[in-house]
Backbone:
């Protein structure tokens, strides 16, 4: 009994020592990007290899999980907005000045592809090395030959298309609207578009005149998807977009991007579009029924998020911000649990 009390006191003192010294494993940590340029796109092909893009033709590449980010030659001074890979070798970058860049060597080199795009291309989604979609002002384009040719698809709206996601070659969703620098009502509004034939036809599933726009979309299967937008808007569907139900975010920050690892685990990031401030990260572990705000080491606005598994994620934003987590964004108390288990085993 006496020895048990002594062990318990030792355990409490040990835990207190770790708390005082701040020896918890942090949720989100800042990585050194080497730039003050705004970063607006990121994609990690795996835990170690990734690409981030941003203003003035900036491309950064990492091969060590963000321990170091190395600047690459882009061949352009245009602002780059989006990056996505279909596998470890093949990917695209899109941006202003009708820019579409393509790589077949894992991002070591990038080559410009000719296209009929508008001046501003916001985002790109690739299903495989041959099939991809790019979206921008009043435009959705598709390639089926690795970007050798890009064909515009017909849409019925005249606004920005901010993001796009396909669950297979036929079924896709695109979202859009205005940003805060565009005209006020009645010209703004958020749009959700849907296709079941690869984009040959796009139908308006939702038009919301109460907000500026929808900025990010992610589906975990053909029925289940999440859309995020201005003023803390989160919408979810469980029937392929036939109905969209508003979820509680408890924020009025503009939400810019959403990423799910599985049906339950997802992350949303954001920041006010017309301000460098307001960075926020929200996390769900119950499929979006509840969203919990996470602690982050910055207040700068965040633009894109990418996870390679449920725990390992990267976020980019204003002023060269790159955040990295190995704990799903949560502060880990695993070391405390290890101490407790070890103490119990000695009893």
Residues:
């Amino acid at each position: 009994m006496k020895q048990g009390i002594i062990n318990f006191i030792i355990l409490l003192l040990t835990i207190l020592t770790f708390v005082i010294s701040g020896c918890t494993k942090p949720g989100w940590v800042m990585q050194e990007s080497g730039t003050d340029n705004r970063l607006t796109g990121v994609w990690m092909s795996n835990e170690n290899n990734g690409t981030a893009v941003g203003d003035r033709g900036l491309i950064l590449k990492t091969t060590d999980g963000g321990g170091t980010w190395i600047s690459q030659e882009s061949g352009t001074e245009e602002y780059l907005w989006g990056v996505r890979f279909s596998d470890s070798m093949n990917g695209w970058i899109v941006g202003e000045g009708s820019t579409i860049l393509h790589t077949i060597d894992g991002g070591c080199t990038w080559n410009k592809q000719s296209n009929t795009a508008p001046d501003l291309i916001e985002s790109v989604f690739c299903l495989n090395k041959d099939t991809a979609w790019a979206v921008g002002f009043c435009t959705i384009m598709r390639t089926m030959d690795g970007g050798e040719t890009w064909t515009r698809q017909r849409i019925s709206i005249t606004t920005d298309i901010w993001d796009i996601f396909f669950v297979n070659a036929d079924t896709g969703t695109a979202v859009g609207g205005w940003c805060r620098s565009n005209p006020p009502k009645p010209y703004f509004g958020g749009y959700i578009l849907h296709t079941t034939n690869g984009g040959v036809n796009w139908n308006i599933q939702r038009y919301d005149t109460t907000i500026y726009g929808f900025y990010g979309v992610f589906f975990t299967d053909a029925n289940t998807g999440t859309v995020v937008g201005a003023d803390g808007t989160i919408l979810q569907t469980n029937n392929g977009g036939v109905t969209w139900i508003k979820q509680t975010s408890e924020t009025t920050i503009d939400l810019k991007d959403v990423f799910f690892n599985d049906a339950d685990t997802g992350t949303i990031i954001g920041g006010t579009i017309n301000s460098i401030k307001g960075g926020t990260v929200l996390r769900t572990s119950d499929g979006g029924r509840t969203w919990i705000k996470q602690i982050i080491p910055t207040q700068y606005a965040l633009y894109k998020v990418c996870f390679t598994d449920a725990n390992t994620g990267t976020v980019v934003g204003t002023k060269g911000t790159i955040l990295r987590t190995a704990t799903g964004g949560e502060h880990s108390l695993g070391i405390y649990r290890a101490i407790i288990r070890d103490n119990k085993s000695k009893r």
